[in-house]
Amino acid sequence: MSDVLTQIDGAAARLRLNRPKALHALNTGMCRAMLDALDAWEHNDAIHIVLLDHAEGRGFCAGGDIRMIAESGASDGTEAADFFRTEYRLNHRLFTYSKPIVAFADGIVMGGGVGISQPARFRVATENTKFAMPETGIGLFPDVGGGWYLSRLPGRMGEYLALTGHRLDGAECLALGLATHYLPAEALASAKAQITTAPDKALAILDDLSIEPPIAKILAHYADIDRLFAGDTVEDIVAALEAEDSEWAAATLATLRTKSPQACKVSLRIVHEGRNMPDFAAEMAQEYAVATRVCRLPDFAEGVRAVIVDKDNAPHWSPSTPEAVDSAAIDAIFAPMPAESAWKP
Predict the structure, then answer these.
(1) Which of 95, 167, 313, 345 lies at a 20 to 30 A Cα distance from 338?
(2) What is the structure's pLDDT at 92?
(3) SS3 of residue 253 by DSSP
(4) How far apart are CA 206 and CA 120, in angstroms?
(5) What does the alpha-carbon distance between residue 303 and residue 315 come to, in Å, rounded to a whole number?
(6) Which residue is catalytic, options 3, 106, 143, 299?
(7) Is residue 340 annotated as part of the catalytic site, yes or no?
């Protein structure tokens, strides 16, 4: 059975992730298959819309093939670079696609799952949605366009989500604009069936099936996040949280202390610089340069060991504090790549 299922259903094309044992995490082959399908459908006048979801089991998409990236990063990094290049081309293709895409983000939406759902014109969340960019916990950063999407959230929400990896539910995704609609999971089959028969009425169909979401809990801390995550550096943010006398600040600080200091510095810079990117292609070119370097650093290997291989959740980061991270090393991670090896759409 293929890891990606494609079908044409009337005037709708269906793109379904089908790797249930890995929570539909993306590998290079899946990204290539999706690119091929999108290329074929774009020039088919009979297709008016693309529906993106997951097939069997829990979903939507738990990220990328982290174990492969770690193994490649520990050697010459070629396979990891090939994955990032292909995945980012898929992200960019979805972002610039000429036909509307509906992403049904029902379930876990992390890392690579964010990268394929956020470019969609219509992004459906449900009561099952768990959205996060948890990369700082394994020594990485929110890539797949994370610097673009997070930097465009209100206030300092992007900095908060990038550094802490905080999980949002479906109602919170809707409140922050990460989702365009909130539907009960039991209504998804009807939504897909109706859109398939009347693709040009997709917006009206989703509006009609939408329900009032629960209260978005994150909004209770919006002012705190805006104030405490406004610092220019990770050290500034840590100091602001340390000076704050509240349970929420203490819990947030405790979370932040579990993350890779180096990855936090990279992530904060990705969000800050993402605000001023001229277009999405420029964002992806920068993220490719950063990703191909970060995946070969000791913190990534250590993060994967602690979280995915040994599962002891006790990584030993090096450097172990934000203060000890060399700013020149961060500058080197962000240096533009030579033209012949740089990412292109």
Answers:
(1) 95
(2) 98
(3) helix
(4) 14
(5) 6
(6) 143
(7) no
Cβ–Cβ < 8 Å for 250, 257? no
Strands (E), the chain: 4-9, 12-17, 49-54, 60-61, 101-105, 108-110, 122-125, 130-132, 168-169, 181-182
Two tokens at 319? 């450097």
End-to-end Cα, the chain, rounded Å: 29
Checking DSSP bridges between strand 181-182 and strand 122-125, what pairing results, if any?
A: parallel
- Residue 112, pLDDT > 90, answer yes
Helix (H) or strand (E) holding 157: helix 157-164
137 flagged as catalytic: no
Pick the catalytic residue: 63, 64, 113, 137? 64
Q: Catalytic residue at 87?
A: no
Q: Using alpha carbons, list the distances in angstroms from residue 283 to 127, 146, 289.
A: 31, 9, 10
Task: Compute the distance between CA of residue 125 and CA of residue 113 in angstroms, rounded to an integer.
Answer: 13
Nearest in space to 250 (alpha carbons), one of 264, 259, 238: 238
Q: 141-177: per-residue pLDDT in tens?
A: 999 999 999 999 999 999 999 999 999 999 999 999 9
Q: What is the mean pLDDT of residues 102-119?
A: 97
**Active-site residue 135, yes or no?**
yes
